[in-house]
Amino acid sequence: MFITVGLGIFAETYAQASQSLMVRIGQEKAARGNLRVRFLTLVEDSRCPTGTNCVWAGTAKIKIQVRSGSRTAQTFEIETAGTADDVVFRGYRIKLTNLTPHPANNIRINRNGYVATFRITNVSR
Length: 125
Description:
Oligomer: single chain
Order of helices and strands: HEEEEEEEE
CATH topology: Tick-borne Encephalitis virus Glycoprotein, domain 1
Largest sheet: 4 strands, antiparallel
Helix content: 10-25%
Strand content: over 45%
Strand order of the largest sheet: 1-8-7-6
Number of helices: 1
Radius of gyration: 17 Å
Distance between the termini: 27 Å
Low-confidence stretches: 7-15
């Protein structure tokens, strides 16, 4: 009984401490409190296209701008894979968890159609 209750409280606390945020390229969205994330541009996309076999899975790199309230914004580059998939800004970890659309063989992607999904976690607790 105590274990179940304890796990339930932990899951609820984690859910409150973490937020998913989807941002289209060129747009800005509000996250926890007064944190704002803007998806500035796609820097590169070398991910292995769907329907092909690649030696390396590849990565996509994007540039984001993050600000809190009226403070000066900071710009970061983060990737979909590797060690550069997150940044910490004013007590929040911003992790790039997905970037769509995924490249496909012989299909050109409209650069204005990208959507980044982030997981925002409060790391100051």
